[in-house]
Amino acid sequence: MSISRRIFVKAGGLALVSLGLDPLFLARAAYASYRPLPPSTALSRPVLVCLFQRGAVDGLNMIVPHGDPLYYRERPRIAVPATDVVDLDGYFGLHPRLAALKPLWDSKTLAIVHAIGSPNATRSHFDAQDYMESGTPGVKATPDGWLNRYCQHDREHQDTPFRAVAFGPQLPRILAGTAPALAIDDLQAFGLRAPQPAARDRLTRAFEELYAGSSTGLLSSSSQEAFEAVQTLQRVDPTQYQPAEGADYPRGRLGKAVLEIAQLIKADVGLQVAFADVTGWDTHVNQGGGDGQLATRLAELGQALAAFSRDLGERMRDVVVLTMSEFGRTVRENGNAGTDHGHATAMLVLGGPVRGGRMLGRWPGLDPAQRFEGRDLAVTTDFRDLFAELLARHMGATGLDAIFPGFMPDPARFPGAISA
Amino acid sequence: MKYRVLTCLLATVLVWPIVGAQRAAPLHVVSVALSPRDSAVHALNRLAYGPRPGEADRVAAEGVMHWIDRQLVPRKMDDGALARREHDFRILEYDRGDLAGMYAEVQRERRERKQTANQASDTTVTPREQTARRLAGQFQELAVVRAALSERQLYEVMVDFWTNHFNVYFAKGADRFLTPDYIEHTIRPKAMGKFEDLLIATAESPAMLFYLDNWESVAPGSVPPAAMRVRARPLFGRRPAVFGLPPRDPAEQDSMRQRALQRAPQGINENYARELLELHTLGVDGGYTQQDVIEVARIFTGWSIQRPQQGGNFEFHDWAHDTGEKQVLGIRFEGGRGQDEGVRLLKLLANLPATMHHVSWKLCQRFVNDDPPDGCVDDAVAAWKRSKGDIREVLRAIVSGPDFWAARNVRAKVKTPLEFVVSALRAVGADPDTTARLAQVVARLGEPLYLHVAPDGYPEMEAAWVNSGALLDRMNAGVALAAGKLPGVTVTPDSLLYAMASPDELIAAVDREILGGTMSGNTKQVIKRQLADIRDPQQARALAIGLALGGPEFQRQ
């Protein structure tokens, strides 16, 4: 988009605000109408897959500091026994139900950043999720998410409706914004339904004309994205998909989402940014140690990531998967054999480009004097440093300060998940 | 006391002329921008779940402000048709105790099956479990049916509003059997009363106490009475309950006691306290601190629930209550007052300026614009102050203000999935059954009812609902409904409009009856082109209605 067009969008947006129209629509429409023709080939694009562990995962039971006796002292009922932990480096280890990820660690495609989180002190799920998705901790007014801002900023790949896809019924905050993004709940059922293909195509065309001519605002841009995507999927035919290498995805939402991400990557439809939610981490009560509630959730996560990695095989050379969660949980277990809202947590980074087999970030320790407000694991890595590193070194983004406004990303602070 | 009487009198005097005058004033405002029929359509779109066939004309003839006045007093409205339909919903015959008992039995059966089954993956469903599932589906469907059929439309809209404001998650453990009772006996009776009463009712509701974990928040070091010890903890869902099994030998009992004690709650849980301040009352910028959250949690220690086999009612546990002094927002709460401390706190919170503003803002967002105008919020807050939080007066202020009727706010909101499905059902005069299939449509569009996991409830912002996938699903649902192919519902299109040979007449009728006269020139042309080669008038009608329901105009309200 040239500067003059950008000014047009800005000025037109301002003019239309007074008429009660949404400037977001304008910007999206501008993207859509100046989009080049569909890609001839989309091989070797870098792909970033983000999984959001909503509800605040207990980083200390996910990536266990089993070398620290304080961990066991603070968690008499819910600590993961040292004998069960899958040791990584003598001090940290994987929760036993994440054992499926150990081969990835050994093959140096899995790195772990511990004590990572937000500079903002909030213990509200909603605020903290909001900040992690907007990429602007402490600033609520940010209208868009950082993944969307990356897409706005880097337009090299905006030639496909599948560039940025959230797998779920709603578009999450992290992908909200002026750049087009799709929300897909079920890849196979995506599109108009009719008994015969001819009737389906006719309905599709009719609705396309209705929305092209009569809709305003987000309805207009979203429908446009929808019809482009329908066209592409007709070529791909997702009903025929078979995972490779006998990859065994877990049943349930996460397994399905991750499988569909793999499917789209292999279909070369231009997927660059994928996002899915993983829920069930808010373990206030009876969270369990080696077994129990949290263990069940971790088993699903581990199996999903392992299956994804196996299914993609060689293609993992272009792919980085990042797990994130709004904050961690209290170091000490609470009165209900659970944990309450805390501060820092751990994030996993895996994929071909990752400098894996290493624990990243500075470990602050569990000593009460080192803790945040005396109770929680302190944050030593600002999550934006990791996000910025992935965008810069894996996705090739420039202009990071526009993606993380007010932050000034600095490679010197990058945790080192990807080779410089 | 004298002072209070005087204030009441004053309030009455102050409110009265406003009540009397509002019938005329907004009509004046309305007449500037909207015709009587347009204002009726607008009111039906925002204060109701959209017009039924002929309803826009009826409301216009009655006078929209008169219609609103009647909606504000739902008790006085006859709702016989809905009441008759409710007889088909067996879920309404089960009280909390019945459902709790059924839930406990299902759990017991499942456990027994696990013990006897050879393989872990036994997926057989017992008849009782089937009944429980069917009832759960009926409970979700009932929300759709009431919204579609009730004459008390504004009341149903408010029930949905408060259900989200005081959200609980139907699929969390005991909330599987506590939520239906919560909607019937906590939310519905108080949806049009005083905010304070509703707030207290939710705080005492077992569903909320369970959802936000307060039921097991106890003062550190407190010990349950000896008789309770062996059963102290494995109550709901997450751990198998111990009742109903054969007696155990003493050694086993001892170790059970040990385990039960280990699992017993040992301290405060801040979850409810935090959401009470952040979501239910003050709002996230309401000026409270982490210390306030802790103090509030201390005040609510002991607010708990009975065991399910005893009915799962509210229970205050003296033994679990923190008897020390507390300070919330700089206000001292003397210790040792037991349950009264919590009630006092709720009454205080219910009428703080931050609460009035936060809840009024949300109401204006619901009724006027995703980005609520300041004037609307100010009017609502003023009415709240005058009426001491009478929800009806706050609503009256919102619909009497200029913002509600301003051209820039008409059709400015996109329907939520529930609003879309229900308004489509109403538009074609459809008759829903008691199976969960319409609730499943709402779920597919992104809003599974009573299943928003986070305590903030479903959002009012269009950005949360408008995305490509959901939009395609709305088109699919519109086409299926118009063709009479949406499962769970009977459509008799003749009651809406007769099949007619002329496409122009058909399109004009669809515009008038379904789109409230908002059909664009483009939409008319597209539908006309689609109708060109269709000879069968019934098919033509179904296609025209389907395209209208799935098209862009019908997504707005």
Descriptive terms for the model:
heterodimer, A: 420 residues, alpha/beta, nine-stranded mixed β-sheet, three-stranded antiparallel β-sheet, 13 helices, 12 strands, 12% strand, globular, disordered N terminus, B: 557 residues, mainly alpha, two-stranded antiparallel ribbon, two-stranded antiparallel sheet, 27 helices
How would you sum up this structure, described in words?
The complex is a heterodimer of chains A (420) and B (557). Helices cover 35% and strands 12% of the residues of chain A. With 420 residues, chain A is an alpha/beta fold. In chain A, strands 1, 5, 6, 7, 8, 9, 10, 11 and 12 form a nine-stranded mixed β-sheet that branches. In chain A, β3 and β4 (93-94) form a beta hairpin. In chain A, α1 (3-17) packs antiparallel against α2 (23-33), α2 (23-33) packs parallel to α9 and α8 (197-214) packs antiparallel against α9. Chain A is globular. By secondary structure, chain B is mainly alpha-helical. Chain B is 57% helix and 3% strand. In chain B, β1 and β2 form a beta hairpin. Chains A and B meet through α6, β7, α8 and α9 of A and α14, α23, α24 and α26 of B.
**CA distance, first residue to last residue of chain A:** 29 Å
H-E string of chain A = HHEHEHEEHEHHEEHHHEHEEEEHH
Radius of gyration of chain A: 22 Å
Which two chains have the most extensive interface, and how many residues on each? Answer: A-B, 59 and 60 residues
- Taken as a percent bin, the fraction of beta residues of chain A is 5-15%
Number of helices of chain A: 13
Number of helices of chain B: 27
Helix content of chain A: 25-40%
Per DSSP E runs of 2 or more residues, the count of β-strands of chain B stands at 6
Q: Residue share in helices of chain B?
A: 55-70%
